[in-house]
């Protein structure tokens, strides 16, 4: 995967995030971008986008709670799950928008 395709995947994911949750804040953190649904509230982080040499990872803070009957999400930790994207077509093929909507809708412990 080349740098241009990586940048296109990241840009497309960010555009989908804004469609799903228009008031988000993108925060450069952990070598990628984390997304806060309530700007300035770190506890409202629901996903992150991280670019690697061979893929882009869309990571979900509480991914273990997402409905995933087709087993698209990867990871076996207590909370987090992620989707590896190697092409633009993976965004639709792996139902990224659906997972982003689910992640946004999860109840958080915000004050």
Describe this entry's structure for a reader:
The chain is an alpha+beta fold and 111 residues long. The protein has one domain (3-105). The chain contains three helices and five strands, in the order H-E-E-E-E-E-H-H. The chain has helices at 3-20, 88-93, 96-105; strands at 25-29, 32-36, 45-51, 56-60, 81-85. A five-stranded antiparallel sheet has the order 1-2-3-4-5. The chain is globular. The chain starts with a helix and ends in a 6-residue tail after the last helix. Residues 8-103 form the YdhG-like domain. It holds the Pfam family DUF1801. InterPro entries: YdhG-like (IPR014922). This is YdhG-like domain-containing protein.
Summarize the structure.
This is YdhG-like domain-containing protein. The chain has about 110 residues and is an alpha+beta fold. About 30% of the residues lie in helices and about 25% in strands.
Essential attributes:
111 residues; alpha+beta; 5-stranded antiparallel beta sheet; 3 helices; 31% helix; globular; YdhG-like domain-containing protein; YdhG-like
């Amino acid at each position: 995967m080349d740098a241009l395709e990586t940048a296109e995947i990241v840009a497309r994911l960010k555009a989908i995030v804004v469609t799903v949750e228009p008031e988000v804040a993108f925060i450069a953190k952990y070598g990628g971008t984390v997304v806060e649904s309530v700007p300035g509230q770190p506890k409202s982080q629901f996903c992150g986008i991280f670019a690697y040499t061979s893929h882009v990872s869309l990571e979900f803070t509480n991914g273990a709670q997402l409905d995933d009957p087709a087993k698209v999400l990867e990871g076996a930790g207590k909370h987090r799950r992620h989707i590896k994207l190697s092409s633009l077509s993976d965004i639709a093929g792996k139902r990224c928008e659906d997972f982003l909507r689910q992640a946004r809708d999860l109840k958080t412990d915000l004050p």
